[in-house]
Hints:
Helix content is 31%, strand content 21%. It is an alpha+beta fold. The chain has 3 domains: 11-229, no CATH class; 364-526, no CATH class; 533-589, no CATH class. The strands form 5 sheets. The protein has a 7-stranded antiparallel β-sheet, with helices on both faces. The N and C termini lie far apart (55 Å).
Amino acid sequence: MSDFTNQDLDPIRLEVIRNRLNAAANEMAVALQRAAYSTNIKTRLDFSCAIFDSSVRVIAQSFSQPNHLGSLAHFVPQMIADYGLKRLQSGDGILSNDGHRGGVHLNDVCLVSPVFYKDTLVAFVAAIAHHVDVGGSTPGSLVGLSKEIYQEGLRIPPVRLLADGQLNDDIFGLIMNNLRSPKETAGDLRAQVASVNRGIRQLTEIIARYGRTTITQAVEEMLNHTERQVKEEIAKIPRGIYTAEGYMDNDGLTDEPIKICVKITVTDGKVIYDLHGSDSQRPCPINATYAMTLSNCAYTLRALMEADVLVNDGFYRAIEVIAPPGSIVNAHHPAAIGGGWETAFRVLETCFQAFASAIPERLTAGSKGCLCNIALGGESRRPGDFFVFYESMGGGYGARLAKDGIDAIQPHAQNTENSPVEEIEANYPFRIVRYELIPDSEGAGRFRGGLGLRRDYAFDHPVVFSVLADRAKFPPWGLADGLPARPAKYILNPDANPQEFPSKLSLELQTSDIFSIQMGGGGGYGPPWLRQPSHLLDDVLAEKISVERARDVYGVVIDSAHMIVDEDATRVLRENMCRQAESFERISDEP
Length: 591
């Protein structure tokens, strides 16, 4: 570290300790993944792990979910405060999922264990994971029509699940008794136990190797170094106030859109996110908690920084998030919060829109714009038993200054995998009958957005099918004269008597039904008629863009008989497009 200031600690040793702590967090993540039962955790990687010092400041995180990691920094200190620091003993494990106590939605269950060294509390380790079911009125606990949190599942205040390293059978049994998939959840919860135990062992070894005093000094220097780095990175963003508004389709119970307002103030060494003006919380499933909002605001700043900047307490010192209590971005009890990540995601992209007014060359256009929570459940292949499945869907990533958007990806703070069809069909009683990129779903531009993803579900038994998603009304936005992408679609029986639904739903479906989830694409960057014709030809050959769209939107004429670009016709058409755009700009600029 070039700005190393602590003369009592060797800088090389400091770097070794920093990497040992990060490796310990990643080993926690590997332990959780390998021990998990559900597809959502072991394959989609919908979990995160972190290490905190004795003051409950985050000092190391696994390479996992940005959504979770930001929320852990807020939730874990609140869990310890609510439970009582003085009550903690070696071998304890405190469990909670209560979004109205500092957490996120109920499916994200957090386990925290204290780390003692020679009878002294020295650290905490935490593992959070999205469990496929936590009770509630529909399988998967993501109720498309919920009005209050009591409909969404079991709320667990900070309770002692582990005592002296052993599971509390009473608490464990109480939780399992409220779930539709106790076998999977029991396996996933034990995987979290394995994760925190791994973290405890790793931290104990690190402290024994270097000594508690040295580790304490190293942690303090790490956090201070990160704070200095963050201030240097903030200095690269022009000082000023940047604003934007974003809208969500509806709240799930009414057709009224939800407004998100963002005002970002960039000062010397600090960025303030002010969300005053955002709509009030509603009796609907997509209220966000403060932890959700904080996490997604923090992501937007981290995305503008160099890769070597760590996300620890030193990073969070440079951020202030003002989210009005009782608003859609900081809902209070008893608000339903199952789909709150959707609202937080809209906060994220609205923040990017605000930053784009200052630094468009450093940003992407809009992405598919939602997580798209999908939960379904019903009778399993074993008579008398039930299954629950959860996943979120990939879609298009926005284009940027010199690169196309990525197809079929979980963008930004999601960072999960798309569930493999083979694993789904081997373990659950439903089938994926279509799984493909959606042609012509990209936002057109000099650099095009990524393509949306389609997945059609067919069922071996009747199921309850829930979706908490968005972007069916307001498409992913383009940047620097790039065009918006195709919005998402949610269609029952798409090939026979299609019925299109809004983006929040809970339905009882039969074996004759097929439900199609069609995610939006990513927005384009730059005028479409500036895209290289050879790139358009490649897209057409790959069946990502049709010949008609290449001509009508991009101004590239392709000879279908020979599959080559007609250069003369393309030149004439593009000159026309350019003149029309210039005329429109002149008219728009007139007083």
